[in-house]
Design brief:
Number of domains: 1
Largest sheet: 3 strands, antiparallel
Helix content: 10-25%
Bound molecules: zinc ion
Number of strands: 3
Radius of gyration: 16 Å
Structural class: alpha+beta
CATH class: Mainly Beta
Oligomer: single chain
Distance between the termini: 43 Å
CATH architecture: Single Sheet
CATH topology: Rubrerythrin, domain 2
Strand content: 5-15%
Order of helices and strands: EEEH
C-alpha cells in the first residue's frame, strides 16, 4: 500500500520521497495521530517525561 506524501517546501503531493517539482523533501501527508504507533508514542512520552519533570 502506497502512502501519499507531501512536499515540505512547495506542498505538492507525490508518492516519492523527493518532490518531483522542486526536489524538496516530502513527508507523509497523514497526520501523526492517525498512525497506529501514535498511541505507543504517547505512552513513551509519558514514560520519558513524568509529571514531576514537566515544570510550569
Ligand atoms: Zn516541492
Amino acid at each position: 500500500m502506497k502512502k501519499i506524501r507531501k512536499c515540505a517546501s512547495c506542498g505538492a503531493y507525490t508518492l516519492s520521497a523527493k518532490c518531483p517539482k522542486c526536489g524538496g523533501e516530502t513527508k507523509t501527508a497523514h497526520p501523526p495521530k492517525f498512525s497506529p504507533e501514535d498511541k505507543w508514542a504517547k505512552y513513551r512520552r509519558r514514560f520519558k517525561f513524568p509529571e514531576g519533570e514537566k515544570g510550569k
